[in-house]
Fold these 2 entries.
Entry 1:
Amino acid sequence: MWRDAALVAGKDLRIEARSRVVLHQVAPFAVLVLVLFAFALGPGRGPMVHAAPGLFWVAVLFATVIAVQRSYGVESTEATRDGLRMSGLDPAGIFLGKAAALAAVLVVLEVLLGVGVVLFYGASVHSFGELAVASVAGTVGLAAVGTLYGALSSGLRARETLLPLLLMPVAAPVLLAGTRAWQAALGTSGAGAGDPWLRLLVVFAAVYLALGVVIFGPLQEAA
């Protein structure tokens, strides 16, 4: 399973490295979301600092939808999905590999967006450890659920419009818990206020990772 996961993750990351779609399209879109929100909030620093955690995770969620569509769109065009299905690779390994590649892309985007939050909103980090744990757990959760729902919608004609409708409601716990955890890490809420939300992020990530390992095979066949 782990060998197959490494093969699939390497394949997805090589495709992205050659196409540079995330660098040239997804990343500018995510940064543009932050800039537009900054204009909408006005010049006052107070509202911007308080809104920064939520806007960060909204931008990450939008970027996740685009990245998942990109990942499965390439496979649909090149018939790679059929090749993976007939390759004999472990479905659990395929799921973990695709989720790992998506998580790696999201990490790059989150670093860029984190810098944008500091520059555009004037936010300052009070707890780097809490920030890192929240970001890692949220990234794993989004990558796992994005990979699952990407596979679920990949065989449908209207997948471009159905994927956001399927993914965003399920990813709402990441948006909520990530925002609360980031508020604590940025010092805009009380000390220790982010601990329950960090646990929720970890549980969400663990549940969808386990679910993906179990059901990705049947989903792949159905798609």
Entry 2:
Amino acid sequence: MNVEKIFASRAPSRAICALVLCLLASTSLPVQATTLAVLQLPALPTTKAQRAVLLGLARAGERLVAVGERGIVLLSDDAGTSWRQAKVPVSVSLTAVQFVDAEQGWAVGHLGVVLHTQDGGETWQKQLDGERAIALAVQIAERDAQLPGGATHLEQARRMLADGPDKPFLDLYFRDRLHGYVVGAYNQIYRTDDGGRSWQPWMQHLDNPQGLNLYGIRAVGNDLLLVGERGLLLRSTDAGQSFQALESPYEGSFFGLLGTRDGALVAYGLRGNAWWSDDRGDSWRSLHTGTESTLASALELRDGGLLLASQSGEFLFSHDHGRSFDKRQSRSGGTVAAVQQAVDGSLASVGLSGVAADQDPRASGKP
């Protein structure tokens, strides 16, 4: 499969999602049939869940939580050695997950789904879906049609309405239990200030007139940053009230963004491209990763090191701010979509082949 061609045609998902669109049931049926089925059908328990296509991975306190196709959510309380399936009210494929503490977390996915958990991922409730999201977008766009840029936003909202609720959310960022954002295909961004009980379309706050896909959102210090296709970089310095385009060092898609504890930024994307910024995105330094594979995930390790994971299963470690990398292959030997460091310092990853535990002495701090 040619990843470049996929993204040239604006397939609405991040790096790893592009490889599995043809595998996911939620993208293989007509929109109306899909909406009726997967938004109302709870995820089915399966003994093969650990080998399912999994796209997101997060820490919930000491627990690991993985999400993926057909609404599968897996929980591990032993650093990724064993997993069990959680209760999920939808069968739509999930793309990303985040927890703000050991109990409160959110997951996003296809058909505009946003899920919330209050018990560490044991059970989930739907807070938003594509039908509701589009209705909100059209309502706000019609209200603001006479404002600067309003006509463009109204045209985009009406186009989404005509297409149907098939647009996925691809990433999310929550600052705490109340305040967060979800982002996705075709400039979709929604904001909540009450923990997801209500959502506000936020597209009109972005300097993204072409409606480019949004693949990642992260906070660094007091700033919020967005990355997307065609080198899109957006930054907010006013608590998310407005996002301004930054000069990009790169014309290819950025699939993710990492903010380090000392305030640095790492943006990563196609063909091993990764960039480092020490000044909140005003300037960027190219990182020589030594791989031609698309980078799907980034992680700051507990010892301050940087880990980049590629879709071909490479783990790239750096302890000099990305100036050099030490490469090794993931134990899974397969495609990596996301990676996390478990409470014991080991690494866990998910991808096309499901979950994998990678005991790594460099990550755990062992001699």
